[in-house]
Design goal:
Number of helices: 2
Number of domains: 1
Strand content: 15-25%
Distance between the termini: 75 Å
Number of strands: 4
Order of helices and strands: HEHEEE
Helix content: 40-55%
Radius of gyration: 25 Å
Largest sheet: 4 strands, antiparallel
């Protein structure tokens, strides 16, 4: 008699090996996805800071004096056409609020552009 198919023991062995592989691979994939989202977030913040730089070039009359800072919002940058209308936070998948604040400072006659991300409770430079 010619039997085709697998025994229960063989099937259980294959399922066990697949489960072990999944346990090993899942954390690596999850960490890679998280790292890539963080990198994209940093790129988005950098783009917002570049838009603030361009805002400063267009509006030199509002630039702060030595030791002073001013704050512009993402909404203002959008109105000026310096950044896309929809800037999405890749971590939360939500749109950045138009109220997102970008601080332009003057330290030793060097202008700094810092996004004040209150949602994440961090400051990115």
């Amino acid at each position: 008699m010619n039997k085709k198919g697998f025994t229960l023991a063989e099937l259980l062995g294959v399922i066990t090996i697949l489960a072990m592989l999944a346990l090993l691979v899942t954390p690596v994939v999850t960490k890679t996805i998280k790292n890539n989202k963080q990198k994209l977030y940093n790129i988005q913040i950098s783009e917002i800071e570049k838009a603030a730089y361009n805002y400063a070039i267009k509006n030199t009359d509002v630039l702060p004096e030595e030791g002073v800072t001013i704050v512009v919002t993402l909404g203002e940058l959008k109105k000026e056409g310096l950044i896309d209308k929809e800037v999405r936070n890749p971590i939360t998948k939500e749109l950045f609020s138009d109220d997102l604040k970008i601080e332009i400072g003057n330290i030793n006659n060097q202008y700094t552009y810092t996004v004040l991300d209150e949602e994440a409770n961090e400051e990115k430079e």
